[in-house]
């Protein structure tokens, strides 16, 4: 069993237990917490992802975690909504104003341009343009992952893999120590487990040149 301290940030949203189980299934210990000191001291931090950005950001603010999460220097991985929270803002509400997010990766979440395809984009889809980022060790173009979303980040300089559903969007983004996957690794069978394992085995220096 790994002695590293891994934490899942308790954003008050759903899906925490399934992410925890996915990590433990690989033989790693992990703690679900909103404790500031535990999050700061963690070797690896995971932002889970089911729910709305508005609700999650309200919870993060109520727990006084905004500056804590923005100041993390260890590797951080976001799943689905967790990835979207890393961006500058989300257009997920019907209100005039976007939902301000954590601003960790300079991109914005917008409605998925599905071109008539049914929303949400739900099910298995393939990755394109997979980069050599260490999170994708053992992952190649055409590999299938599980998606459930109606909003996405556009392809940008921070895109490390893309996917197509009516139009191309970011399947994964990264900047410095922050990595986000629009798909759900915890629901993506063996390849999803590989993503999680790559993250948990990641050495921080591997991200310097990625």
Fold blueprint:
Layout (H helix, E strand, L loop, with lengths): L5 E4 L6 H10 L5 E3 L2 H6 L2 E4 L5 H10 L3 H5 L5 E4 L1 H4 L4 E2 L8 E2 L7 E4 L9 E6 L17 E6 L1 E2 L6 E7 L1 E9 L2 E4 L7 H12 L10
Structure write-up:
By secondary structure, this protein is an alpha/beta fold. It has a single domain, classed as Rossmann fold. Helix content is 22%, strand content 27%. The protein has six helices and 13 strands. A seven-stranded mixed β-sheet has the order 2-1-3-4-13-12-11. Strands 6-5-7-10 form a four-stranded mixed β-sheet, with helices on one face. The protein has a two-stranded antiparallel sheet with strand order 8-9. The radius of gyration is 16 Å and the shape is globular. The two termini are 28 Å apart. The mean pLDDT is 93.
């Amino acid at each position: 069993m790994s002695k590293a301290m891994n934490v899942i940030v308790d954003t008050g949203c759903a899906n925490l237990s399934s992410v925890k189980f996915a990590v433990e299934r690989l033989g790693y210990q992990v703690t679900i917490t909103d404790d500031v000191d535990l999050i700061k001291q963690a070797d690896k931090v995971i932002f889970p992802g089911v729910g709305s950005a508005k609700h999650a950001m309200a919870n993060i603010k109520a727990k006084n975690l905004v500056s804590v999460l923005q100041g993390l220097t260890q590797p951080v991985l976001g799943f689905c909504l967790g990835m979207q929270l890393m961006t500058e803002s989300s257009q997920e509400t019907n209100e005039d104003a976007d939902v301000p997010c954590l601003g960790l990766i300079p991109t914005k979440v917008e409605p998925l341009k599905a071109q008539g395809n049914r929303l949400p984009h739900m099910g298995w889809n393939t990755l394109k343009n997979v980069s050599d980022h260490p999170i994708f060790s053992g992952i190649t173009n055409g590999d299938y992952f599980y998606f459930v979303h109606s909003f996405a980040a556009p392809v940008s300089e921070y895109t490390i893999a893309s996917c197509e559903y009516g139009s191309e969007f970011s399947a994964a983004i990264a900047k410095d120590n922050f990595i986000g996957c629009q798909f759900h690794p915890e629901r993506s069978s063996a390849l999803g487990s590989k993503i999680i394992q790559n993250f948990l085995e990641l050495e921080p220096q591997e991200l310097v040149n990625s």
